[in-house]
Specification:
7 strands, globular, Rossmann fold, 279 residues, 7-stranded parallel beta sheet, 13% strand
Length: 279
């Protein structure tokens, strides 16, 4: 029996990257995984990177779970409401929400000459709006819908993918503030949901071998890197922990989760947990 067999999960922003890896890790553990994103045609996504919600769903199913693709723009509250109505109608429950959808990277692909920026004063205000509209607000809105379902169940887990940038002063103003907001969102939601037996956690990946990272692999030291699916294994381990409420409101580092729960990356390696200074 797979540990998450019968569990219903939603991973937002899972056409590619960390979101896709999380979906695969949950599928490997036997979960039914709803996969959202905007990309439904190969090559039409951000930066022409590979991946669609449908290809992710197929890979989830091939790994032993059930992948269900739902096109959703998480900046559109109506689409988000329809998504949760669909999950309620089809499954009547939701055990896990992974808030992974993110905005704010558009300047890597939209022609903005960000490499000439000396500091935040040179960046367009739209950079802030993208991170907080497509990221923080999207997490908040999805969590409000998920919380209503989980409170009824008196059980559930919400995971926000975040990063060490939340604790660093040199990560860039928009990115650092947005990730700090992601962590505070988790901590304050955890407080409100504690008495309903719903846990909320921020999860920090290390250096992940996403499609965009591998496109520029020559610029990275990949010796202690992680596959996207490794992050999924971390989420699966947390979702399968019957004592998860002991961790609610906390920040978890994926590589430390692997050590604590006893799993490795897909290639058998054991990535070392980073510190804030190393990230």
């Amino acid at each position: 029996m797979k540990p998450l067999s019968g569990k219903i999960a939603l991973v937002t922003g899972a056409s590619r990257g960390v979101g896709k890896g999380i979906a695969l890790g949950l599928g490997e553990a036997g979960a039914t995984v709803y996969i959202t994103g905007r990309t439904v045609t190969e090559g039409a996504g951000a930066g022409r990177l590979p991946g669609t919600i449908h290809s992710t769903a197929a890979e989830v199913t091939a790994l032993g779970g059930v992948g269900i693709a739902v096109q959703c723009d998480h900046t559109d509250d109506g689409q988000v409401a329809a998504l949760f109505e669909k999950i309620q109608a089809e499954q009547e429950r939701l055990d896990l929400l992974v808030n992974n959808v993110w905005g704010g990277y558009e300047h890597f692909y939209d022609g903005t000459e960000f490499w000439f920026e000396k500091g935040f004063w040179d960046a367009p205000p739209s950079r802030w709006d993208q991170a907080f509209q497509s990221g923080i607000r999207a997490h908040y809105v999805a969590s409000t819908f998920a919380a209503k379902m989980m409170i009824t169940q008196q059980a559930g887990l919400i995971v926000n993918t975040s990063y060490f940038a939340a604790q660093k002063n040199d990560a860039g103003v928009v990115y650092g503030v947005a990730k700090a907001a992601t962590d505070r969102l988790a901590a304050t939601m955890a407080h409100d949901l504690h008495d309903h037996n719903v846990a909320v956690i921020s999860l920090y990946p290390g250096l992940v071998r996403t499609e965009s990272v591998m496109r520029a692999a020559e610029h990275f030291d990949l010796s202690n890197s992680e596959s996207p699916q490794f992050i999924g294994r971390a989420v699966a381990a947390l979702a399968g922990d019957s004592n998860i409420m002991e961790k609610t409101g906390q920040i978890c580092v994926a590589a430390q989760v692997a050590l604590d729960y006893g799993f490795t990356d897909v290639d058998g390696t054991q990535p070392r947990p980073l510190t804030v200074d190393e990230a």
